[in-house]
Design goal:
mainly alpha
Length: about 550
């Protein structure tokens, strides 16, 4: 018992070994603040004395795509020991008079139970049984109602499942504790609000996000504002996930100008050295989409004669500006910059292989390709009054000269997005793509394949995988495969992806039926959040 002490982590939960405390707390913070994987990786620098440290090491390997087999043997070796010790705990708990050592033993049994619930959740996560993984993480909260990290992981499972209720339900379980933070006026000890002492500030971004997912935007904004005020009071930089929730609020309210200003201002302080690659590229995805949405609104307002008060020819976002900005985002933040550095490296562990990086890139490409081969005038006409307009030979010639497969970018071309631009980026991504990792990513990848034969072949692989799966996610896999079939049907009817079609095809009953069928399917099967899945609306 000499190495046992009643140390507690930043959530106030008992730990087994004092030497592990800083490693455990730093891991919590690295994940909750969306620090780069290099910060998470420090959890691997210590040989685990406790099962819980081992569980967090497994969490790191699961999250970063590492080899979990290196820890599985250690986990199996602990099982027999823990089971035997828990038997002894049950015997001592029946004694009327308990020694201090026996009381400690009962508390340590509690920490072990928490650790094994984590490991059970990760085993289900690894097997694709995200429903069970969610239940295991939530079960941790029954006896550890301050475990914000378990909430974060439960929300992740809900996000993978595309289940807003689960995302919301997880953060709601600790809301009473999370909102009990004393205000600055009620304390004279500002140190109580330091990063290590009070982690509840991270809950505001998490809970606001969950409210957004269930469509309760009024309460989401209220929670976000409380979070912003809390960070302002303690003079600490805003939590990146709270910033993300604020971006969603602007997005939902269609405050595109505010959203652009907010993102441009905040992204000045972030880079891949201080922000996780997922959230870094996701913020830039948000900004790219916002540029396009602003251009759409401004074009309709100005050309259509229904001009809002905040839209003028001085502050309007033209399509040429919006798409030029999107190309610069892809070049400097989402893809080209990484491809130039890592294209000759081993794909294992490369940023290019990260599913979320690929998802954010394809999400932008799906949007910008709609305007490929067109100039400003034809895009404005298409937006205000959609009409048949196929690319001319001059468009094709101009696009070929301005941006070939070599990746040469000419922002001065009259053509806003050369026809070859998206194909070039997609061809660079293909060698790094791994199917069946993310269902939305699979659908976006399928939609970018250049020929009907390739799309149908990929869809057949989706069907085969869904039929062979027997895990808890099999229902989502089958629905995603059905969505893949509908996407193939739509693209077969419209020709090239997002290409203009003649009026007869647009009114074709088969096409309309396919689009209706697509909207009747449950898009939540694709996981991720609503604004990411909304890219399918371009079909």
């Amino acid at each position: 018992m000499s190495n046992i002490s009643p140390e507690r982590d930043i959530f106030g939960i008992l730990l087994d070994f004092p030497a592990e405390k800083d490693f455990i707390n730093n891991y919590y913070i690295s994940v909750l603040e969306y620090q780069p994987f290099a910060s998470w990786q420090r959890i691997m620098h210590l040989n685990p004395g406790s099962t819980f440290l081992l569980a967090l090491q497994m969490d790191y390997l699961m999250s970063s795509g590492g080899d979990v087999a290196i820890l599985e043997k250690q986990i199996e070796q602990r099982k027999g020991y823990i089971i035997e010790r828990e038997k002894n705990d049950k015997d001592t708990s029946e004694q009327v008079a308990e020694s201090l050592a026996e009381q400690f033993q009962k508390l340590l049994s509690h920490t072990e139970k928490r650790a094994w619930k984590y490991l059970s959740a990760m085993k289900s996560w690894s097997a694709g049984n995200f429903e069970k993984a969610y239940r295991d993480y939530v079960s941790v909260l029954l006896s550890n109602p301050t475990d914000l990290f378990a909430v974060k992981r439960a929300q992740l499972m809900g996000l993978i499942l595309g289940n807003p209720g689960k995302i919301y339900g997880a953060s709601l379980k600790i809301s009473e504790w999370a909102e009990s933070i004393p205000s600055k006026k009620n304390t004279t000890d500002k140190k109580n609000y330091s990063r290590s002492d009070d982690p509840r500030r991270y809950w505001y971004g998490m809970h606001a996000f969950s409210l957004e997912q269930i469509g309760d935007w009024r309460r989401a904004e209220t929670i976000a504002q409380k979070g912003l005020q809390w960070f302002h009071d303690i003079e600490v930089e805003i939590d990146p996930w709270l910033l993300h929730s604020c971006v969603h609020i602007c997005h939902n309210a269609a405050k595109w100008g505010d959203c652009i200003e907010y993102l441009e201002k905040n992204m000045e302080k972030y880079n891949l050295e201080n922000l996780h690659v997922f959230l870094y590229t996701h913020f830039w995805w948000h900004l790219a989409i916002t540029y396009i949405e602003k251009a759409l609104v401004d074009a309709k307002a100005l050309v259509g004669g229904n001009k809002p008060a905040d839209v003028s020819y001085d502050n309007r976002m033209s399509f040429s500006t919006a798409l030029r900005n999107c190309k610069m985002i892809i070049r400097d933040h989402l893809w080209d910059c990484h491809f130039q550095k890592e294209s000759n490296k081993n794909p294992q562990g490369s940023i290019l292989s990260d599913p979320q990086v690929q998802l954010n890139l394809l999400g932008v490409l799906w949007q910008v390709r709609k305007y490929a081969g067109k100039d400003e005038e034809s895009v404005n006409a298409m937006v205000v009054e959609p009409k048949a307009a196929s690319s001319s030979e001059n468009d094709l010639k101009s696009s070929s000269e301005s941006d070939g497969i070599s990746g040469d970018h000419d922002f001065n071309s009259e053509i806003l997005i050369p026809l070859t631009y998206c194909a070039c980026r997609f061809s660079e991504l293909q060698p790094y793509f791994v199917k069946n990792v993310d269902l939305l990513l699979d659908i976006l990848f399928l939609g970018m394949l250049p020929t009907a034969a390739e799309r149908r072949a990929f869809h057949e692989e989706m069907v085969a995988f869904s039929e062979s799966s027997k895990g808890g996610n099999s229902g989502n896999l089958k629905t995603a495969a059905e969505m893949g079939e509908v996407v193939c049907d739509i693209l077969d009817l419209t020709g090239e992806i997002f290409a203009d079609v003649n009026l007869g095809v647009k009114n074709n009953k088969i096409l309309q039926a396919s689009r209706k069928r697509l909207h009747l399917l449950d898009w939540s099967c694709l996981g991720n959040s609503w604004e990411q899945r909304a890219v399918l609306e371009v079909l």
